[in-house]
């Protein structure tokens, strides 16, 4: 009589193990739903500038045919319609639970830094004034203007240490590190961040989106924080800005979903550095077998939301191209993963930076609507830079 073959249990990892195992060139992603570490490249996704979701679906089908067990695609897509993308079917994927925030954040790299704002703060404020003129003339309802900090160290910036600090300091965020190296880069380039904003996730028939818009900086004094939360909820300007975003997200998801739940009133969520008006929108897919309702297809249908672009979208994009001197690259694009079943999770690439050797390029933006104040919008971008600056040991320098 033959002995039954022993079934080897699948390895169980801890989120901390995956974080410790991250090396430059890997893909790391963690959120409240779990952690994922991907290594190696089974196949790149040749997406061009068309539908990345269609290319991803083809790549996943091909990987399954070639014997890849439970294939996934991981990576990032830039902001513009013609932006670069870095998407691959990895060779090895490990999963774990969500980070729990345990363990010390560790000290930032001991380096000497120089910081160059692009553009200068007064130029950014002038751009806000020009955007307000467009809004006053009726050409726009809202536009999101971003600015950049180029931070340069006297030694190469260690991406694994930066990622580890971001996860430890922001355990509830959607943390990520993606290799986005491109021809012509002087060294490998990594996109690293801790985004608070879920663009869309899909699990079976369940779809969730969590748009954010309307923000105030968080401070050390808890009484003042309570005042700021109340002020944010009472602010007509911030609520109007948020309504643009949540209405658009609900309208798009309504094309794919039944039983859509979009709360009429926003709530407030906090990060270690900011308070945001938030609406959690949920729905059930009408046809989960439709390739056009995969996680990435939904993300492409939603992107760009008014939280990172504006209303109307085409005119806002044109204003961004006109008023922002720096190309956003991957900032305010998408980062995440999708699997063969169409499930996945994609977040908005904010609170992020691109790291190449000794240089870190950070971006932060603010939503400009009627009633915006240039000085306040400049201050909001400075507050949003704090997530990355804190992880670099440079908080207070924006």
Automatic annotation (TrEMBL):
Its EC number is 5.4.4.2. GO terms for molecular function: isochorismate synthase activity. It catalyses: chorismate = isochorismate. Pfam families: Chorismate_bind (PF00425). NCBIfam families: isochor_syn. Gene3D superfamilies: Anthranilate synthase. Keywords: Isomerase. This is isochorismate synthase. Belongs to the isochorismate synthase family. SUPFAM superfamilies: ADC synthase. InterPro entries: ADC_synthase, Anth_synth_I-like, Chorismate_C, IsoChor_synthase. The keyword Cell inner membrane does not apply. It is an enzyme of class 5 (isomerase). The keyword Nucleotide-binding does not apply. Signal peptide: none annotated. It comes from Saccharothrix lopnurensis. Residues 122-384 form the Chorismate-utilising enzyme C-terminal domain.
């Amino acid at each position: 009589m033959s002995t039954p073959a022993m079934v080897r249990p699948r390895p169980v990892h801890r989120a901390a193990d995956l974080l410790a195992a991250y090396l430059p060139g890997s893909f790391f992603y963690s959120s409240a739903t779990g952690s994922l570490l991907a290594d190696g490249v089974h196949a790149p996704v040749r997406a061009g500038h068309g539908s990345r979701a269609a290319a991803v679906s083809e790549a996943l089908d091909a990987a399954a045919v070639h014997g890849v067990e439970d294939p996934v695609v991981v990576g990032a897509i830039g902001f513009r319609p013609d932006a670069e993308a870095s998407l691959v079917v990895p060779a090895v994927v490990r999963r774990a639970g969500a980070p729990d925030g345990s363990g010390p954040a560790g000290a930032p790299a001991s380096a000497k830094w120089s910081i160059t704002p692009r553009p200068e703060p007064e130029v950014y404020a002038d751009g806000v004034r020009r955007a307000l003129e467009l809004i006053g003339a009726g050409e726009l309802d809202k536009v999101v203007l971003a600015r950049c900090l180029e931070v340069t160290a006297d030694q190469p910036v260690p991406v694994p240490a930066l990622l580890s600090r971001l996860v430890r300091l922001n355990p509830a965020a959607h943390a990520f590190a993606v290799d986005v190296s491109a021809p012509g880069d002087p060294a490998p380039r990594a996109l690293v961040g801790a985004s608070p904003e879920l663009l869309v996730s899909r699990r079976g028939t369940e779809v969730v989106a969590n748009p954010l818009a309307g923000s105030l900086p968080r401070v050390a004094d808890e009484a003042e924080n309570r005042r700021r939360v109340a002020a944010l909820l009472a602010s007509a300007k911030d609520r109007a800005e948020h309504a643009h975003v949540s209405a658009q997200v609900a309208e798009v998801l309504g094309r794919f979903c039944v039983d859509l739940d979009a709360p009429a009133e926003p709530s407030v969520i906090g990060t270690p550095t900011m308070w945001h008006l938030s609406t959690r929108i949920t729905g059930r897919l009408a046809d989960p077998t439709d390739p056009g309702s995969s996680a990435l297809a939904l993300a492409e249908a939603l992107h760009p939301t008014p939280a990172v672009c504006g209303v109307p979208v085409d005119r806002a994009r044109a204003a961004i191209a006109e008023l922002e001197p720096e190309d956003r690259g991957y900032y305010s694009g998408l980062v995440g993963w999708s699997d063969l079943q169409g499930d996945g999770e994609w977040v908005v690439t904010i609170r992020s930076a691109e790291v190449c050797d000794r240089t870190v390029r950070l971006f932060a933006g603010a939503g400009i609507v009627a009633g915006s104040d240039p000085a306040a919008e400049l201050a909001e971008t400075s507050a949003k830079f704090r997530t990355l600056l804190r992880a670099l040991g440079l908080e207070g320098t924006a």
